[in-house]
Amino acid sequence: MSNGDVSTVLRDGSDEREQVDRLDQKDNFTIPVAERVLRLPPYLFGKINEIKYKKRRAGVDIIDLGMGNPTDPPDPQIVEKLCEAVQDPRNHRYSASAGILNLRREVAVQYDRRHGVKLDPHTEVIATIGSKEGFSHMCLAMLGPGDTCIVPAPSFPIHVYSPALASANVLQIDVTKPDFFLSEISHICDTLYPKPKIVIVNFPHNPSSTTIEKDFYVDLVRLAKKYQFYVLSDFAYADIFYDGYVPPSFLAVPGAKEVGVEFTTMSKGYNMAGWRIGYCVGNKEMVKALATIKGYYDYGIFQAIQIASIIALRHAEHARLAMSAEYQMRRDVLVNGLRKGGWEIDPPRAGMFVWAKIPQYWREKMGSIDLAMKLLEEAAVAASPGRGFGPSGEDYLRLAIVENEQRLKQAVRQINRCLKVEPAVQT
Ligand SMILES: Cc1ncc(COP(=O)(O)O)c(C=O)c1O
Predict the structure, then answer these.
(1) Which atom from ligand 1 is nearest to the alpha carbon of 156?
(2) Mind listing the domains of the chain with CATH numbers?
(3) Model-level pTM?
C-alpha cells in the first residue's frame, strides 16, 4: 500500500479511520509543556495591550507611553550604511555568533573613551541580539537549580524571569534606596545558605529611574569579593541622562571585571530597538560561557546590522547626545504637566521613564492596573501599571517619554482631565 511516502499513506487510508485518529489525538494527547513554562506568571500587560489594540483598530488615537520603545528614527548615516551593507552579497551569510571582530573592537574603543574601561575585544566583548537576549542567556549560562539570584525591586520582568527560567531562586530587594540595597545584600549573604551566586543591578533603573554614583559600585565590588558572588549590570539606559548627570559604568570600578559583566544596547540611545543588537562586556569567563550558549542557540546578528552599528558607535555620538537632550525636554513637559494635575513626581536624572506616584485620591480608589485601564479607556493614553513590575510598584504608573512634545502635552491634558478631582479632596 505504501512506498514510505506519508502523502501516499494518507491518500490510501479510509476517511473514517483518519477521523477517529484525529479525535483520539484531541482527547488523549495531554503531554504538558515544560515545567519552566508553567512556572511563568500570567503576562500582566496582556489585557492592556489587548484593549490598546482594539481601540486602535476602532480608529482611536492612543498616545502610547506604555513601552520604552523609541518612536524616533536612527541617525540617517546609520540607515544609509545598513542599506549599503545589505547590497553586499557577502553580508547575507550566517555571521559570527559572538559578533564580527571590528564591531567588538569598536565597542572596546567606546568603553575606553566614555568610561575609561579597557577591554580585550577578543575575550571580553560579545555582541548580543539585543541586551535582553544576552542577559537571559547569561542567566542560563550562570544559574541552575538551587542557585539564588538577587534582583532589584520593583523589577523589569526579565530580571526576575530569566533567573527563574534558568531554575534559580530569586530574592528581590527594594532598589529605590541604593544604600539599603547594599546593606540588604550583606545581610542576605551573612544569613542565607547557600549564599546568592549572582546580584543583578540596573542603574539607571527601569522602572523606578533610580540612579547611583560610582561609590555604589565600589561598595558592590567589595561585597562581591567578600561574599563571592557575580554581578550582572544591566546598563540599558547608559545613553540617556539629564541635568549634567552621567550614569557610571559598573566596570569603571577597579576589580569589577573580576566579578561581573555589563550589558549595553543600541535600542535606546540610537533608536535601533527593532534592529536587535546589544553587547555584553567584562569578565572573560562569563563572556566565554555566554558565547558557548550562543554558539548552540544562534548564528549571530545579521552582518549588515553589525556593520551599521560600527558606524553608529563611531560617528553618531552627536545624534545620541541630541536624543538625550530631547528626552530631557520631554521629561520636563510630562513632569511639569502632571504636577499641575496634582501628581507628586521626582524628575528622573536618566532613563526613558517617569515613575509617577499615583495621587492619593486615586490610590485609595483603585489599584494601578485599574487606573491604567481607566486612562486607556477614558483618556486614550497608554501607561504601564506599576503592579506589572511586582507588588512594590502598586502605587505607581510608569510613563515612557517616547512620544514627541506635542503629543506629550496632549497626553497630559487628557490625563489631567480624566483624573480631575475636586480641589477639596485632592492630595
Ligand atoms: C532595563 C532594560 N534592560 C534591557 C532591555 C532590553 O533592551 P534590548 O532592546 O537591548 O533587548 C530593556 C528594554 O526595555 C530595559 O528596559
Answers:
(1) 1
(2) 46-73+318-418 (3.90.1150.10), 91-315 (3.40.640.10)
(3) 0.92
